[in-house]
Every structure is written in C-alpha cells, then in structure tokens.
Amino acid sequence: MDIQKAVERLERSLLLLDRTSAWDVIFEVSSDTDPFETASALVSLTLERIGKDWEKGNLSLSQVYMSGVICEELIDQLLPPKSPTRIDQPNMGIAVLEDFHVLGKRIIFSVLRAGGFELEDLGHGISVNELVAKVSEKNIRVLLISVLMLPSALRVKELKEQLIESGVKIIVGGAPFRFDANLWKEVNADYCGHNPADAIRIVKQITSMS
Amino acid sequence: MSMKTMTSMERVLTTLGHQEPDRVPLFLLLTMHGAKELGLTIKEYFSNAGNVAEGQLRLRKKYSNDCIYAFFHAPIETEAWGGEVIFHEEGPPNAGAPFITRIEQIHSLKVPSVKESKGLQRVCEAISKIKSRIGDEAPIIGVAMSPFSLPVMQMGFDKYLDLMFLHPKEFNLLMRLNEQFCIEWSNAQLAAGATAICYFDPVSSPTIIPREKYLETGYLVAKRTISQIQGPTATHFASGRCLGILDDVATTGTAVVGVSALEELRKLKEIAKGRITLLGNLNGVEMRTWSQEKVEKEVRDAIEQAGSGGGFILSDNHGEIPFQVEDDTLLAISEATRRWGEYPPK
After folding, report:
1. Distance (Å) from the C-alpha of residue B288 to the closest C-alpha of chain A?
2. Closest Cα to residue B249, out of B280, B228, B226, B283?
3. Closest CA to B36 of B299, B324, B339, B334
4. B212-231: per-residue pLDDT in tens?
5. So what's the pLDDT on residue B1?
6. Residue A144 is inside which H or E element, if any?
7. Burial level of B211, CB count in 10 A (0-12/13-18/19+)?
8. ipTM
9. Parallel, antiparallel or unpaired: strands B196-200 and B140-145
C-alpha cells in the first residue's frame, strides 16, 4: 500500500476515534512485511502529522491525545510492551515536574510507545530531588519533562544541575516553553519539543547518536 | 483636544459599550504580587481576606490598574469539593491529586455548599472589604471556573477527556452538578460586591477540543450557566486559542473574551467588533524578560490592532501574570498604556 495514502487513511480514522478502521489500515500495511516495524513507522508518521497540525492550530489537543491512546493500544496488540523486538534505545523516562497536570506526559508517552519506543513513566507531582533519585535508580539516560506551570519549568535548571555529571539528556515540553521560545535555554535543557512530532524527532536523533 | 479623565468604571463601561473612552482600559490581572506588596508568603497572603483586599487596593494604586482582581487561585474551588491545595513559594497554588479517581464516583458526588466553604467565603469577604473601600470607582472582577473546565482539577485532564469522549451519561451528570456549583459560586461573589465574573473556560478552546465538540458540550454548558449568573461575564480561555469559535462565544451571553498571544488581535477584532469586547493578549510568560523597549512595542502593537472603536481592554493573555514578572515591567506597561492608549488613537 502507498504509505502516504495509508497515513491519510489512518489519520482520518484516528480523528474520528474509529479504532476498527485504524486497525484495518495498520493491519493492511503490516501484513506485507515485518509487522511491527512497518506498523510503528506508519503510526509515527501519522502521529507526527497530527502533532504538527495541532501546533499550527488546525487540530485540538484532545484529538492528539485520543489518537495517541488508540495507536498505543493497537501497537501493544501487535507487539507486547517490553518485547525485545522493540527499538533498541537508551533507557528513557518521562515525568511531570511538581504538578498534577498529566495530559502532556500521557500524550508523549503514548506517542513514543506507539512509535515503538519503550519509556518509564516516572510519575507526576514529583520534586527535583525525587526525580533525580528515580533517574539514578532506573539508570535513565534520556529524560522527558512535561510541565504546565511556569515555576515548574524554572525548576528544570536545578534538575539539570543535579544531573549534569551523569550526562542525562533532558528534553522539555509544555505550555511555558511554547509561550517563551528561549525558556528551554534559560533552564539549560538539552532539547525542547512543542508537539508529539518534535518528541519523536528528538528521541530518534538521540537514539541514532547513542 | 483630549476628553475629561474617566474613572476606571466609566472607562471600562464605555469600552464594553463599544465606544471609545478617554483611553484603553488596562487590566493587570495580578494575584500573587499582592503578597510581595505586603511582605508575606503566598500562603500567608491567601489565608486572610484582609490581606488580599489590602494587596489588591495597593496594586491598583501602584499600577493605575482599571480593575480589582478578586481571584485567589483556581484550586480554592476544588478545595470546596474535598480536594487539596498545594502552595508554592514562587507560583500559584496547585490542585493536589484529583479526587474523582473512578468514573462511577460521579453518581454519588455531592455539590458543596458555597456558604459552608471557608475558602470561598474568604474570597467573598475580600470582595466585600474591597467594595466598601472603592465603591463604584473600579470594577471588581470575581472568578469562577466553568463547569466544563473544572473537571481537569476534579479528575485529571486525561481522565476527563476519556469521560467527555467515551462516557456521555456521566459527563452530562458531572456538568449538571458543576453548573449548579458555578452558578451559586458566581452569584455569591456578585452578592458580595463583585461587578462581573471571569468565567474561565480553557477546555472549550480549539487548542483543546475541536469546534464540533465544543458546540455539543462547552458551548451548551456556557449558555445554560451564563444565563443564570446574575451579572456580566467575561469568558477567558487562559492562553488557549479562540478565533475559530469567537462567533459562537459571542452568542453565549458573555460580554468579554480573554484571548491568546498565539492569535492576532487584528483578526480577532474583525470578528468581535461591535459584538464582544476583547481582553488581552500580552504574553505573560515572555513578560518576565521584556525590556522597556519591548514593553513599549508590545503595548503599542496591541492597542494599534484592537483599540479602535472601543471593545478592547489591554491585559495579559492568561488571566494571571506570573509572580516572576518584575514591578518595573508592570510599571512600564502601565505607563505605555497611558502613552499609547489615549483616544482618539494616535
């Protein structure tokens, strides 16, 4: 099947919350060759496109969220979590620093897992010290941080100071970083993503370097 | 020749009537800065109605603000429902863990009494104190979370989207309960002396849900709720976009709409002109690092795009200016508004 057409069909199904037809598209594509690799590639491309459309204001966050959840479920059916066939990558973790607004984390978690990556959910409402301890305990090498509140975003600087010697890469995202394009540099993050497409791109970039 | 100087109330009412007042009204929506004025921690400040009344009056005088903002913090509402408030030293209090953890709980949820909530009564007490001191000189803005957006704190954003899209029966039930609360809470603030209610409704923004979903959910909730609030309302999307639903918002009965820095005021004004007043849209997060020149440019641009013909109040785009924004920046915004906001437009 033409991949571009498959992406368009999958996007349509996801935006209509139509799991059955989304599964049909994934099944048609994945039946040809390596089922997991092709399916996760298709899902990544589709979710990247949906994420970019949200960034442009053409789609809403609920559509991004529901698409990610549906794709995550479908990919899990195709290949269970923790399967060795999933993408080989450094240990990754994701957390919401200090507050309880988990939607951004949930979206990025789903989108990356749907794209074939494995990552640990390190929780929410978590302090800098608690997060540093978890990163060390689980040997996390790539840490994604989602925030909604400005004070939480400013705390990333303190987090980075505590993790700098361990070489953990920090990717930040969330509303304060969207409203101030320089904030991620101010808090010494390594990368900043504004949407799921950015998350996939940055993680692929880090993975290819490791 | 410039017209006589108006009081803040006259200025605001004139612009709400889509006429040009003496100058563009300025709403610096400051909350935590009051603590700084009184030398208190944020937690100490919000624990006493007298502190907030005094803090707001001082802020209004210091920045020639055209309103008094009686907003304490968002989780004061969920506290009334049994939720937790978590205070921070350098930011707004956050809601603690959601208290609706299972959708079935909605069936047994009880609407809290505004009269029996100590936190909500503290807000009403602050409003009364402010009203007794300023009378009708400036509008006092009360705040209520919309019934449609409150569930983000009641149950968490992801669970709420699941509810909205997958469990219509429980969603409708929760909306009815929240509407009852929002109406009682808004009217209590109006009875205490608030001039208007800022109806915070970020979930209705196209940033969060598509317009089609809004029309069958948040829009209907807003129409039902606003019609029972016994005073004027301003709908605020807390930095969310609204261009795609502005026509619809204008028919909910609201008088003002808080707009995002992500959208052009000029385009918003084309739709809003003569129908609904725009409130916005200075970027509060960026404001922390603005130079005096940048302040001047941002204020001037906003007024140039949306000031003509009235129907415009200069403000930030989120409905709360971050604690980290310095006094000098706020003073510069105030001065630039007086310089560039005079009518007729320069």
Report:
1. 10
2. B226
3. B324
4. 999 999 999 999 999 999 99
5. 46
6. strand A142-147
7. middle
8. 0.88
9. parallel
Can you tell me which residue has the tokens 């790539």? A142
Q: Do A150 and B161 touch (CB under 8 A)?
A: no
- Contact call for B241 and A182, based on CB within 8 A: no
The domains of chain B, with CATH numbers, are 25-265 (3.20.20.210)
* Secondary structure, 3-state, A68-127: HHHHHHHHHHHCCCCCCCCCCCCCEEEEEECCCCCHHHHHHHHHHHHCCCCCEEEEEEEC
Bridge partner residues of B69 (DSSP): B141
Report yes or no: B290 at the A interface, CB cutoff 8 Å.
no
Asked whether A147 and A108 are in contact (CB, 8 A), the reply is: no
pLDDT for the residue numbered A27 = 82
pLDDT digits (tens, 9 = 90+) for B133-174: 999 999 999 999 999 999 999 999 999 999 999 999 999 999
Q: What confidence category does residue A73 fall into, taking pLDDT thresholds of 50, 70 and 90?
A: confident
CB contact under 8 A, B91 and A125: no
The Cα–Cα gap between B125 and B129 comes to: 6
Contacts of A101 in chain B (CB under 8 A): 152, 157
Radius of gyration of chain A (CA): 17
Average pLDDT over residues A174-201: 94
Nearest to B68 by CA among B130, B2, B20, B157: B130
Domain annotation for chain A: domains and CATH numbers: 3-78 (1.10.1240), 92-209 (3.40.50.280)
Are the CB atoms for B60 and B43 separated by under 8 Å? Answer: no
> Tokens in use for A194?
């504004």
Strands A169-174 and A142-147: parallel
Contacts with A43 (C-beta within 8 Å, 6 or more apart), sequence order = A10, A26, A71, A74, A75, A114, A115
Q: Using CA of residue A76, residue A80, residue A86, residue A91, what is the dihedral sign? A: positive
Burial (0-12, 13-18, 19+ Cβ within 10 Å), B245:
buried
What's the gap between Cα B220 and its chain centre? 20
Q: Say whether pLDDT at A99 is over 90.
A: no
Q: What is the pLDDT of residues B33-44, one digit of tens each?
A: 999 999 999 999
* DSSP string for B242-294: -GGGHHHHTTTT-SEEE--TTS-HHHHHHHHTTTSEEEEEE-HHHHTT--HHH
B309 touches chain A (CB under 8 A): no
Cβ contact (<8 Å) for A62 and B210?
Answer: yes
User: What is the C-alpha to C-alpha distance for residues B303 and B313, in angstroms, rounded to an integer?
Assistant: 9
Taken in order B41, A176, B329, B261, is the CA torsion positive or negative?
Answer: negative
Cβ atoms of residues B199 and B226 within 8 Å:
yes
